[in-house]
Design goal:
The complex is a heterodimer of chains A (about 260) and B (about 475).
Chain A lengths: L2 E11 L6 E11 L3 E5 L6 H9 L4 E10 L2 E2 L5 H7 L1 E4 L11 H10 L10 H14 L17 H15 L3 E5 L7 H14 L5 E5 L3 H6 L4 E6 L2 E6 L1 H10 L2 H4 L8
Parallel strand pairs in A: 3-8, 3-9, 6-7, 7-8
Antiparallel strand pairs in A: 1-2, 1-4, 4-5, 9-10
Chain B lengths: L6 H9 L22 E2 L6 H10 L4 H16 L23 E2 L13 H10 L3 H7 L8 H14 L3 E4 H7 L1 H7 L10 H9 L4 E5 L11 H4 L10 E6 L4 E12 L5 E2 L2 E6 L4 E10 L4 E10 L4 E10 L2 E4 L2 E4 L5 E10 L4 E10 L5 E10 L4 E10 L7 E10 L5 E10 L5 E10 L2 H8 L5 H17 L4 H19 L1
Parallel strand pairs in B: 4-5, 5-8, 6-9, 7-10, 8-10, 9-11, 10-12, 10-13, 11-14, 12-15, 13-15, 14-16, 15-17, 16-18, 17-19, 18-20
Antiparallel strand pairs in B: 1-2, 3-4
The chains are: A alpha/beta (about 260), B alpha/beta (about 475).
The structure holds adenosine-5'-triphosphate and magnesium ion.
Chain lengths: ~260, ~475
C-alpha cells in the first residue's frame, strides 16, 4: 500500500517564480485509487503533473509532495521515476535512433540493483506480452521511440512503457487525446488491466467518455491553478452537462 | 612479461646508450616514473633524426628520406591560416621524439590510481591488457595471444609485421609505395612523421587473396603501436581484400602530448581495403594524423574513423580515386567534450571517370566541446560520370557547444552527380527529462541520445567495436554531467 500526497502545492515557471501557475493544490492518492482531474485548457494540469515528476522548467515555491511520507522534492527526476512515479506525457518526446526495445531495456535495467543483469529472454517475453495486450504490432520494438509515430501511436507507446515499468503511481496526462475510438478502448482496457491494489492513478482528461471506460473513484475539477470541486464519477457527468462556467465561481478548497 | 620476439627490439637494446630517464610529470596527465631503455632526448634536430635511424639500423636511403623530411618540416609554417591557433601551443622542443619501451617499468599495479583501474574495468579491458596500458608491464604478449591469426594469414602469403621490420625485410615492396600516397611535404605534420616515424604496421596482401578475418588483434596492443609517430602502409595487390582495425578504446595514458601518424593505403586494381579506427585519447593530446588511400581501377577504399578525446584532433582521411570506377568512402564519428576540439572530415580526390565517393560524418559536441567538419571533394572538369554524396550531421548537447562545417565541394563540368546534406540537431532538455522520467540518470539519458544519433553508423562496425564505442560514450557522458 502506497500513498502519494500532494500538499498545498504551488508551482511556477523556474524563470518566473513569483507568478504561480499551480496555486495551492492538495490531493492524496492511495494505491488502488483512480483520481480523474478535469479542467479547462491552461489551468495547470500538465504543470502539476510535470512538477511532481521533477521537470526542471518548474519550481515548487511552496508546499510539498510526499511519496509514502517522504518528500520527493530533493530527488532527481530519475530517482522519482525509480521510486515509482510514472508520467505518461501529454506530448511525448522523440528519441531518434533509439529503439523502443533498447530504450525500455535501459529503463528496466536502471531499476535493477548494482551488478544485477537483466534477463533478456524474460524481458522480451514480457515486452511482447504487453505489446499484445495493447495491440501494438511487434514491428514497433525496433522503431525509434516516438519518431514518426502518429499521435495515437505515441499515446499507446506511453501505456506500453507504463505497463513495462510497473510504477506505483501513474500520472496520465491526456493519454486519451488523439486516440481513435478503437484505440481509446484498447488503451482503457490496458489501463484497467494494470489497475489494481498496486497502482494509484492521476488521470488528466478533457473527455467524460474516457471515464466510461476507466471509471474513476474520484473526480477533481481544476480551475486557474486550484482544485475547485471534487466528487465521484457523477461529477464528470455533471460537468459534461453544465460546462466549466458552472465551476468558475466556486472557490472551495479541494477535499481529498 | 618479457616476450619480445621482434628482433629489432633486442638489437635496439644492445644499441642503447641513453640512460634510463624518468618521464617529466608535466608531460602527461597520467605519469609516473617509467624507465625507458632509450630515448632520443627532447627536442628535434638533425641529431635526433640520425639517432633514431642509427638505433633502428636503417639503410642509408631511409636516413636520407628522414633528413629531407626534417628540412621540409622545419621550413613549413603551421597551418594556422585555416586551422586553429591552438597548434601554436605545441612546444616542439619539449617533445621526446623517440622512446622505446624495452625495459620492465618499475611500477606496480598497486600504484595505478583507482579511477584508472575503474575505467579499465568499465571498458572491459582484459586483465593482461590493463597492466600494459597502465604501464605496469612493458609489453603485452601479443605473440602468444594472436599468433593464430598471423599463421593463418601467412599461409595465404600475406605479409603482416611492424613497419620497422618491414623496412628491413621487404625494402623493395615498402619503398615502391612509401611516401607515394602522402608525400612528405603534404603538410607540416606528415613531414614531421616522415622525419621521426617509428612503429606502425606494414601489410601486403598478394593478388586475389581475400583475408577473411580483420587484421587487428596482433598489433592492437603492443609497445610499438603506442608510438607517437607511427607509420602504416597497407598494400592490397590486384583483386585482394583486407580489413584492418587500429586503435584501442581504452584511454591511452600516454606520456606524450603529440601524436602524429601517417597511414597510407594502396588498393591496386579491383582490390578492397577497409580501415577502421576507434581512438580515445587523453585530454592533453594533440592528435594530428594524415591518412590517405590510393584506389586504382575498380578498387575500393573505406575509412571508418571514430575519434574521442584529445585536446585537438585534426584528421581528414582521404581517397585518391585514380582508376576508373574506383570507390572511396569515409565514415567518421567525432565526439568533442569540454575543452576538446575535433577538427575532422574527409578528402575525396576524383582523378578518373566514373569514380564514386561517399562521406558520412557525425559529430557530437558536449559542453564547451567543439566539432568542426572539413570536407574536400574535388572533381575536375575533364572527367565524366563521377559521383559524390556528402552527409554531415552534428549533435549539440548543450548551448555552449560549437559546430562548424566547411564542406568544399569543387565540381567542374556538368557530367557529374553530387549531393550534399547537412543537419544540426540538439539533445533537448525535454528529451533528457523524458528519458529521466523513465528512470535513466542524466548521464545515461545523454549517452543513449548520443548512441541513437550514431546508431546507423555504429551498426556498420564490427560487433566488438560498436559495443566498445557504446561503453566509451557512456563513460564520456558520465564525466560530462559530473
Ligand atoms: N514551460 C512553459 N513555458 C511557458 N508557459 C508555460 C509553460 N508551462 C506552462 N505554461 C503556462 O502555464 C499555464 C498552464 O499550462 P498547463 O500546460 O499546465 O495547462 P493544462 O491545464 O495542462 O492545459 P491543457 O488542457 O491545454 O493541456 C498555461 O498558461 C501555459 O501557457
Ligand atoms: Mg496539459
Amino acid at each position: 500500500m502506497h500513498t502519494l500526497e500532494i500538499r498545498d502545492l504551488v508551482v511556477a515557471l523556474t524563470e518566473t517564480p513569483d507568478k504561480p501557475i499551480v496555486k495551492g493544490v492538495s490531493l492524496t492518492i492511495k494505491s488502488g485509487e483512480v483520481h480523474a482531474v478535469m479542467g479547462p485548457n491552461g489551468t495547470g494540469k500538465s504543470t502539476l503533473s510535470k512538477a511532481i515528476a521533477g521537470h526542471p522548467d518548474y519550481t515548487i515555491t511552496s508546499g510539498d509532495v510526499f511519496l509514502d511520507g517522504k518528500s520527493v522534492l530533493e530527488m532527481e527526476p530519475d530517482e522519482r521515476a525509480r521510486a515509482g512515479i510514472f508520467l505518461a506525457f501529454q506530448y511525448p518526446s522523440e528519441i531518434p535512433g533509439v529503439s523502443i526495445a533498447n530504450f525500455l531495456r535501459a529503463a528496466v535495467q536502471a531499476r535493477l540493483g548494482e551488478g544485477e543483469d537483466l534477463d533478456a529472454v524474460a524481458y522480451y517475453k514480457n515486452l511482447y506480452a504487453k505489446m499484445d495486450m495493447l495491440k501494438i504490432d511487434r514491428k514497433f520494438t525496433s522503431r525509434a521511440v516516438n519518431e514518426g509515430f502518429s499521435g495515437g501511436e505515441k499515446k499507446r507507446c506511453e501505456i506500453l512503457q507504463m505497463a513495462m515499468l510497473e510504477p506505483s503511481f501513474a500520472l496520465m496526462d491526456e493519454t486519451d487525446s488523439g486516440l481513435d475510438i478503437d484505440a481509446l478502448k484498447i488503451v482503457a482496457e490496458g489501463v484497467n488491466q494494470l489497475r489494481g491494489p498496486k497502482l494509484g492513478v492521476l488521470l488528466i482528461t478533457h473527455y467524460q467518455r474516457l471515464l466510461n471506460h476507466i471509471v474513476p473513484d474520484y473526480v477533481h475539477v481544476m480551475y486557474d491553478g486550484r482544485i475547485v470541486k471534487s466528487g465521484d464519477k457523477n461529477l464528470a457527468i455533471e460537468l459534461e452537462a453544465k460546462g466549466y462556467d458552472w465551476v468558475k465561481d466556486i472557490a472551495v478548497p479541494a477535499m481529498s | 612479461m618479457q616476450t619480445s620476439t621482434q628482433p629489432e627490439i633486442f638489437a635496439e637494446q644492445e644499441a642503447a646508450q641513453a640512460a634510463a630517464i624518468g618521464i617529466d610529470q608535466s608531460l602527461g596527465d597520467f605519469t609516473y616514473d617509467v624507465k625507458y631503455d632509450y630515448d632520443a632526448g627532447s627536442g628535434l634536430t638533425e641529431n635526433t633524426v640520425r639517432y633514431i635511424s642509427a638505433v633502428k639500423k636503417e639503410a642509408p636511403w631511409i636516413l636520407d628520406f628522414r633528413l629531407n623530411a626534417l628540412k621540409t618540416f622545419l621550413a613549413k609554417p603551421l597551418p594556422t591560416h585555416w586551422a586553429t591557433k591552438d597548434l601554436e601551443n605545441i612546444n616542439f622542443d619539449k617533445i621526446r621524439y623517440y622512446l622505446a619501451q624495452g625495459q620492465k617499468p618499475k611500477r606496480t599495479w598497486d600504484e595505478v590510481p583507482e579511477d584508472i583501474k575503474k575505467t579499465f574495468e568499465r571498458l572491459g579491458v582484459p586483465e593482461q591488457e590493463r597492466k600494459f596500458l597502465a604501464g605496469v608491464e612493458a609489453q603485452f604478449d601479443s605473440e602468444a595471444a594472436y599468433s593464430n591469426i598471423k599463421d593463418i594469414v601467412a599461409k595465404q602469403g600475406v605479409i603482416f609485421m611492424n613497419s620497422t621490420q618491414a623496412l628491413r625485410e621487404h625494402p623493395e615492396l615498402f619503398r615502391k609505395w612509401f611516401g607515394k600516397v602522402i608525400p612528405t611535404s603534404d603538410n607540416k605534420f606528415s613531414a614531421l612523421n616522415s622525419a621521426v616515424f617509428s612503429g606502425g604496421s606494414f601489410i601486403y596482401v598478394p593478388p586475389g587473396v581475400k583475408v577473411a578475418q580483420p587484421l587487428q588483434a596482433y598489433f592492437r596492443i603492443n609497445a610499438e603501436n603506442f608510438g607517437q609517430f607511427e607509420r602504416t602502409l597497407i598494400i592490397c595487390d590486384e583483386g585482394s581484400e583486407v580489413t584492418y582495425m587500429e586503435g584501442c578504446t581504452a584511454p591511452k595514458f600516454s606520456t606524450s602530448t603529440l601524436h602524429s601518424a601517417v597511414v597510407e593505403l594502396v588498393a591496386l586494381k579491383g582490390a578492397k581495403i577497409q580501415y577502421i579506427t576507434v581512438q580515445n585519447w587523453a585530454p592533453n593530446v594533440y592528435n594530428l594524423v594524415t591518412k590517405r588511400g590510393l584506389a586504382l581501377e575498380d578498387a575500393e577504399i573505406k575509412w571508418i574513423d571514430c575519434n574521442i578525446g584529445s585536446r585537438l584532433t585534426m584528421k581528414y582521411p582521404g581517397v585518391v580515386l585514380k582508376g576508373r570506377r574506383a570507390r572511396g568512402e569515409v565514415i567518421s564519428i567525432a565526439l568533442a567534450n569540454d575543452g576538446q576540439h575535433q577538427d575532422t572530415g574527409a578528402k575525396m580526390i576524383h582523378a578518373a571517370d566514373e569514380t564514386t565517393s561517399t562521406i558520412v560524418s557525425k559529430s557530437i559536441s558536449v559542453g564547451e566541446g567543439r566539432a568542426t567538419y572539413r570536407g574536400q571533394v574535388h572533381i575536375p572538369k575533364h572527367l565524366r560520370g563521377c559521383k559524390n554524396n556528402t552527409e554531415c550531421d552534428a549533435l549539440l548537447i548543450n548551448t555552449n557547444s560549437r559546430t562548424d562545417t566547411y564542406p568544399a565541394i569543387t565540381v567542374r563540368g556538368d557530367k557529374h552527380a553530387t549531393q550534399h546534406e547537412a543537419s544540426v540537431s540538439k539533445v533537448s532538455e525535454e528529451m533528457i527529462f523524458y528519458m529521466q522520467q523513465r528512470g535513466l540518470t542524466e548521464a545515461q539519458a545523454m549517452s543513449l541520445a548520443v548512441n541513437g544519433f550514431i546508431n546507423d553508423l555504429a551498426s556498420q562496425f564490427p560487433m566488438e567495436y560498436s559495443v566498445e564505442l557504446k561503453r566509451l560514450i557512456e563513460l564520456e557522458m558520465e564525466g560530462s554531467v559530473g
